[in-house]
Structure formats: structure tokens, C-alpha cells
Design goal:
α1 crosses α2 and α6 crosses α8. By secondary structure, the chain is mainly alpha-helical. The chain contains 8 helices and no strands. The radius of gyration is 19 Å and the shape is globular.
């Protein structure tokens, strides 16, 4: 981390209550936050996830310790927002499935939806895969966001690719 990081200067000013710095910080980081929320969240709900990310970040500005670069700190918040959202949606789906089993015994057809394939991945593998392959982060940036070593990101992405290929070939059989 260097003092030359312009996001760090904006974040420090935002902590001091500078509204212009907050607006500039959001303007400069919004495209990557949007990409992460699009990659890790539910399609069509990106705007809500981005908004929730900034709400959480701005409410916790005072607790930012500077251990990670501002971009990584913000993207880790975005990842947690998306994870919370996905968990909430999974709970809703399980409840709907449970209700459906009691009211309708008809089986549901399998889908060839990419989102379904990605949702079937282990969450750690899915996050690493989407951050590097979809959101366009480098392995080091993804490691900062996920809070793990770069080698772990590489292995998770590799395993996610293998899992996706296996799922595709299983569907063809």
C-alpha cells in the first residue's frame, strides 16, 4: 500500500466528512463494484447490491483500518453483500421448494441455464471464478478481495473450471 493511491486519499477525506470526496470515491469505484455485484449477485438486482455495498461501506468508514487498499476493502464489502443476498435467496428457494413438495408432486425439468451451473459450484470456487473470469480482476486482486493467498485463488479457479466442464458433460450424457 502506498500513499500515492488516490483512492486512499479520497477515503481518508471521506472519513473526515468530505462529501465531495465521498462522491468522487463512489464515481471512481462504481464500475468495478458494479462488475463484482453483477458477477456474484442475482441478475437484475445489481443496482440494489451496489447500493447496499456503498451503504455498508459509508456506514463503516470510521472503522476502516487501512490494512487493505481501499479498492480491495470496498470489493470485499461488495462480496459480503452479494453472499448475504445469495444466502437469503437460497433460504427463500428452499422454503418455496419445501412448500412445493407438499402441494405439487410434479417434477421440475432440468435447466441449461449458466446461472444454474454457476450456482451449483462451491461458493469459494464460484467467487474466485467469477471475480477473475467475469469481473476481470487479476488473481492478486481477487486474493485481496477474498482474503486468501493467490495460490488458493488459482486452485479454486482451476477446480471451478473442472466442475463446470464435468457438469456440462454430465448434462450431455
Amino acid at each position: 500500500m502506498t500513499d500515492a493511491d488516490p483512492l486512499r486519499a479520497l477515503l481518508d477525506a471521506a472519513v473526515e466528512g468530505d462529501g465531495v470526496a465521498v462522491a468522487e470515491l463512489v464515481r471512481r469505484t462504481q464500475p468495478i463494484v458494479w462488475s463484482v455485484c453483477r458477477a456474484l449477485g442475482t441478475p437484475g438486482e445489481e443496482a440494489d447490491l451496489v447500493q447496499e455495498t456503498y451503504l455498508r461501506a459509508l456506514s463503516s468508514l470510521g472503522t476502516y483500518r487501512g490494512e487493505a487498499p481501499p479498492r480491495a476493502w470496498l470489493l470485499s464489502i461488495a462480496r459480503r453483500v452479494c453472499a448475504d443476498h445469495v444466502r437469503r435467496r437460497q433460504r427463500q428457494r428452499r422454503l418455496i421448494d419445501k412448500i412445493g413438495r407438499h402441494t405439487d408432486t410434479a417434477s421440475t425439468p432440468a435447466t441449461d441455464n449458466v446461472d444454474d451451473l454457476l450456482a451449483a459450484l462451491h461458493p469459494d470456487r464460484r467467487d474466485a471464478f467469477l471475480l477473475t473470469q467475469y469481473a476481470g480482476l487479476g488473481y492478486e486482486e481477487a486474493a485481496d478481495v477474498l482474503g486468501c493467498p493467490v495460490g488458493t485463488i488459482r486452485s479454486r479457479v482451476s477446480r471451478a473450471r473442472a466442475d463446470l466442464l464435468a457438469a456440462l458433460f454430465a448434462d450431455e450424457a
